[in-house]
Amino acid sequence: MARVLIRNLNKFYDKDVHAVQDVNLEIRDKEFLVLVGPSGCGKTTTLRMVAGLESITSGQVLIGDTVVNDLPPMDRDIAMVFQNYALYPHMSVHDNMAFGLKMRGMERAEIAKRVQEAADILGIGELLKRKPRQLSGGQRQRVALGRAIVRHPQVFLFDEPLSNLDAKLRVQMRVELKKLHRRLNTTAIYVTHDQVEAMTLGDRVVVMRGGLVQQVGEPLELYNAPVNRFVAGFLGSPAMNFAGVRVSDAGGGLRAQRNGLGIDIPPEVTPRLQRYRDNEVTLGIRPEDLQLANGSDAPGLCFDAVVEVVERLGAETVLDLQVGDQTMVAAVEPTVRAKPGDKLRIAMRPERLHFFDKSSEAAI
Amino acid sequence: MIEGARWRRWVYFYIPLAVFVFVLLFPFYWMMVTTVRPDNELYRPWMAPNYTPFWTLHPTLEHIKFLLGETLFSTWMLNTLLISIAATIISLFCGLLAGYALSRLKFPFAGGLGTGIFITYLVPQTLLFIPLADIIRSFKLGDTPWALILTYPTFLIPFCTWLLMGYFKAIPKELEECARIDGATRWRAMIYIIFPIAVPGILSAGIFAFTLSWNEFIYALVFLSSPAEKTVPVGVTSELIRGDVFFWGPLMAGALLGSIPVAMIYSFFVEYYVAGLTGSVKG
Amino acid sequence: MAVTSYPVSEAYAGGPRRGAFTRLLEDERWLALVLLLPTTLLLAIFIAYPFEKGIELSVTDSKVGVPGVFVGLSNFVALMDDSIFRTAVWNTFYYTIVTTIFKLALGLWLALLLNRHFRGKAVTRAFVLLPFIIPTVLSTFAWKWMFDPTFSVINWTLFRVGLIHGRINWLSDPDLAMVSVIIVNIWRGVPFYAISLLAGLQTINPELQEAAAIDGARPWQRFWHVTWPLLLPVTMVVVLFSIIQTFADFQLVYVLTSGGPANSTQLFATYAYQIGVGTGLLSQGAAISLAMFPILLIVVIVQLLYIRRVETH
Fold first, then answer.
1. Which CA distances in Å does B220 have to B211, B226, B229?
2. Does residue B254 contact residue B68 with C-beta atoms inside 8 Å?
3. What is the tens place of the pLDDT at every residue in C202-248?
4. CB contacts, 8 Å: B237 with chain C
5. In sequence order, which ranges of chain A are alpha helices (DSSP H)?
6. At the N or C end, where does chain B have fewer CB atoms within 10 A?
7. pLDDT above 60 (res C13)
8. What number is the average pLDDT over the span C54-73?
């Protein structure tokens, strides 16, 4: 059973830098877990502590049922794919992949078999005799993967492996990685700063910030029900719109008001916002949930906006709108005709409204 | 970039360069000419007529024959070769290990030790030779090659360490981390991954160390006394002079032949040599 | 697809048993200790110990075969009264300063010349380094032969060209001997300076020079304001090594003049040799050697501080 348990993990650098704070995670057997967050959030440090490349200040890491805190990396039965591939430049592709097995004293014949196996899976069979410098970025990436696969480890660790590839290759490799994981059926922990990778690759996603875990859950769960403003703004592109609004009484229900933006708060949300009456909260709405108003929209959820910039992407059109004193972004159907200066009436979908406490930033 | 008239190029560039090269190389030419010049031409007074100092029409091998036949020159060459190779091997071994530790491991006093090793590089041999001679005597190593094989590393190791540190620092740490995850101990990662990648540095350090050993004089002069134990620089200095009489022919032959091993290695590995020199300066 | 089921390791039961020594070496600090042990031992025995012994010797009155008694600083006091020692001190400073200035100037000039592109550049560069590669003693003998009073080829040339009428006693004239020794030292040192400075020059972005030229700077100004400041760190390191080597120089003077004539070329090292090994007065010899140390230390510290300041700029 190759689950990974992280209990109360902490990492201090030089006594003042608290890089990883009380992280508790359970990565289930065969699960593909993604750690995502901006740089410096502690995701890589956490991964490295699981790998044994960083010392653990306090807490425990368990692989399977064994506490591995004091085990050197070579004894943890893990494999890691690095951002820069870390291929041994003086060895051929074959020897690169065989190195780990050689270190463990495996026989030549068995090593050759395993290397061939992995090479076939990744389609790098003809490259076995070449040296890393003769390979392209994508090929190097595959060799790095191959090196990890031949070891048949308990856990795969990935440290931003796609960051060095160009955009097109990245998309391609993303799909291949997903297929590979299904085939290999092994626990994997994947670190990235790219939220698209997180959403598409992870069985579950962990969002981190400043050393703390913000939220853990399946991608859509995080997308639709973020627990705080940071997670809400981190996932999704273009990012969620935020507006500081004042909550006030309005004839039986509540109203959220800001210069130029006034909406009636839907009845489902009203109970949660009661205690914020006469206070400021942060309103959040995703660009794809802002559409041109048509007759069927509730009038209380519509507002006027002036178009500033139009970005036609083909699959959708992104509008930069001036609403009162601030800017909002709407992602509308590509058939919408608009040009800068146009005045439009925008509608929000009531079930897609998010509210966040102004000071704690927690979801309301 | 010197733009402009052709003559400027000649005056400011070609001529000065030619003068430099001439001055720097002439003594070697002189060495060669003297080696093959017969004695009667050699000892002709400088103001005598018909004196062609810059070349000879009667080249001879008598000086070289004398050198190899009548003196212990070949023994000296062998001694110097063995001592230089042994000292180089010891220094490379120590330098590799120390260089790796200082550039890729974190441990207390790392900075202090690094500085300490650098400082020992700056301590000149002429400061230590007198007490060191005493110590060598008390270790019963006097007049043996070991006196030099063990003391030469004192100025070779700091250099090798420093040079190799430069090469090690350029190797990304991910390579070692990956090796350790793959199943290598730190030691094996060092030997199988880091050292092979640093081979150019090892070559540079080795060649430089060999040359420095060959060039060393004062320790060899003071620690060795029997003619059969001497190294080439010392042998040539002490055995080819009888009283006030210098045997210039064999002397120059000795100087020439004694320079050949180093010159040969140099000619094959110029780039490594220059890398060693500039590496030590850019540090 | 050949692989239908992908084998995963058996239930993980922790790592293999490892020997105690292997475990130890996995710790960075212990590994560092083991790796640094041979070096530290060698340097301790053959540098630190002699240094301490040297100090010991210099404060006793040992001679060869005769262990001495503690005499405090009387050796050093005696040195200060010794006119030869004072001459040696003056000579060494003079020798070091003059040669360093010339080596730097000529080395820099040569480096600038070599920095341009021309046919045969690599070969020229290789040949230029020869004086530094060939063992000092051997090439110094060539010079000694070139300076020989009776057979000097230099004298011959100068005479033929009409510049002199009698012979020049390069090595036997007390006034000229120092000049000759300086010449040979410069000859030997210029390549080292040139190649090192060349390496430094090659790291300077040529676009900086071009920008300055476009801005209207003449060659000399370009050098002084753009090249020189960027070259300073490398220059300081080169000068540091060179000063220490030259100050403690022995081989060159030993071969050419042994310190003579009349101590006009006597240096710290040659005098220490003469007294310590030649006459067997170990303690006094050790004292002379050690007298170099404070000066060298100051030079090293000053230069290191300067280098650090230049580097953090």
1. 15, 11, 9
2. no
3. 888 888 878 888 887 777 787 888 888 888 888 888 898 899 889 99
4. 137, 141, 254-255
5. 43-51, 93-103, 108-122, 137-149, 167-184, 195-201, 219-224, 229-234, 270-273
6. N
7. no
8. 82
Q: How far is B261 from chain C (nearest CA, A)?
A: 10
Inter-chain residue contact B177 with A86, CB threshold 8 Å: yes
Tell me how far apart the alpha carbons of residues C246 and A199 are, in angstroms, rounded to a whole number: 68
Query: In a 10 Å sphere around its CB, with 0-12 CB exposed, 13-18 middle and 19+ buried, how is residue B57 labelled?
Result: exposed
For residue A195, the tally of other CB atoms under 10 A from its CB is 21
Distance (Å) from the alpha carbon of B185 to chain A's nearest alpha carbon: 7
Q: Express the helix, strand and coil content of chain A in percent, nearest 5 each.
A: 30, 35, 35
Provide the pLDDT for residue C296. Answer: 87
> Which pLDDT value is given to residue C232?
85
Chains touching chain B through at least 3 C-beta pairs below 8 angstroms are: A, C
d(CA B246, CA B43): 11
Q: How distant, in Å, are the alpha carbons of B37, B165, B180, B187 from that of C30? A: 62, 19, 17, 11
Residues from chain A that touch C3, judged by Cβ atoms under 8 A, are 117, 121, 183
State the pLDDT at residue B48: 64
Angle between helices B248-268 and B232-239 (to 10 degrees): 170
Nearest Cα of chain B lies from the Cα of C187 at a distance, in angstroms, of 7
Q: Which residues of C touch A153 (CB under 8 A)?
A: 9
pLDDT on residue C2: 37
What ipTM did this prediction achieve? 0.86
Nearest to C88 by CA among A341, A326, B126, B30: B126
Q: How many whole angstroms separate alpha carbon C198 and alpha carbon C125?
A: 10
What are A358's two structure tokens? Answer: 């102004």
| Whether A12 contacts A42, CB under 8 Å | no
Query: Which chain B residues are closer than 8 Å to C151 by Cβ?
Result: 42-46, 248
* Kind and range of the H or E run holding B282: helix B270-282
Q: If DSSP codes are grouped into helix, strand and coil, which group holds residue A363? A: strand
- C-chain residue closest to B101, CA distance: C32
CA dihedral B229, B232, B238, B244 (to 10 degrees): 160
Q: Which residue of A has its CA nearest to C11?
A: A1
Nearest to C283, CA basis, from C53, C82, C58, C50: C58
The number of CA neighbours under 13 Å toward the Cβ of B197 is: 23
A211 neighbors A149 (Cβ within 8 angstroms): no
What tokens appear for B81 in the block? 């070769």
Q: Report the DSSP pairing between strands A66-67 and A58-63.
A: antiparallel
Respond yes or no on whether the N-terminal peptide bond of residue B16 is cis (omega within 30° of 0). Answer: no
Chains contacting C (3 or more CB pairs within 8 Å) = A, B
With 0-12 CB in 10 A as exposed, 13-18 as middle and 19+ as buried, what is A240? buried
Cα of B104 to nearest chain A Cα, Å: 14
Give the best residue of B174, B175, B182, B187 to mutate against chain A (max A CB count within 10 A). Answer: B182
Interface of C with A in 255-274 (CB under 8 A): none
- Region A287-309 average pLDDT: 86
Tell me whether residue B190 is exposed, middle or buried, using C-beta atoms within 10 angstroms of its C-beta: 0 to 12, 13 to 18, 19 or more: buried
A interface with C, Cβ–Cβ < 8 A, is: 1-2, 63-66, 71-72, 74-77, 117, 120-121, 152-154, 183-186
Of residues A80, A103, A151, nearest to B184 (C-beta): A103
Q: Look-up: residue for tokens 């703004």?
A: A233
* pTM of the model as a whole: 0.83
β-strand A32-36 against A17-27: which pairing, if any?
unpaired
- From the list A52, A100, A157, the residue facing B182 with the nearest CB is A100
